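Bug #2210: token dump truncated for Glycerophosphoryl diester phosphodiesterase?
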Amino acid sequence: MITQIIAHRGSKGTRPENTLAAFNQAIDDGADGIETDVHLSSDGELIIIHDETVNRTTNGEGRVFDKTLIELKQLDAGAYFSEKYINERIPTLEEVVDLLDQRKYRGIFNLELKTDKIKYPGIEYKVYDFFKNRPIRFHLVYSSFNPKTVSTMHKLQPDVEVASLFKINTKAARKFIRHKIIQEWHPSITWVRSHRFFLPHVALRPWTVNSAEDIRYCCKKRFKGIITDYPARALKIRKEIQGE
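Reproduced locally. Full output below:
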């Protein structure tokens, strides 16, 4: 098995995270996959950003859920990273998928539904409706820390791969594997390292695998994939170990 290199929030280590610049760089790097996060705006738009608030990655303040799409689009989502990326904007899910289609991207698109802190009403159905109404040319994967969201996405689209995210507690993930609701686990690399002598016989894509040491460890173990802020670095190390 060749370990898949999945770009965390795009090429997060080299570009402002979850922006079109980051996703373009991940594609340019040759990443096997792209991981990103979706929230809802106050007017029901599917918004690509990691945090529940805009404070960390933009020049604004407040919760995503309290702002309209127009208000979110007025924020600068690149200047915090570097002045080179001033005027990068928070993208919508539609804008990201349009970019992937324009780039003829055929890799993994791992969309995390961010429902573990805010229970965005109906977000699962909005995501389902979005993809139901357009051709999917890449390999779509849903993931979430919220077990209810994992179950709902599986019921809505049983033909789409779903993964369970966790930091420590594996109870829900083990149940989902038994009932064949999910195909793999997306645990933290800290959890993987602490369980290295008795890892379960489950396909793993750990996050966030950034150090050369951790990347080598995962590639030597031939995990199904890793989620990393530095896809170019990871691809180079994978080639050294796995030859591809």
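Output looks complete on our side. The CA atoms of residues 12 and 229 lie 5 Å apart. Marking as cannot-reproduce; reopen if the truncation happens again.
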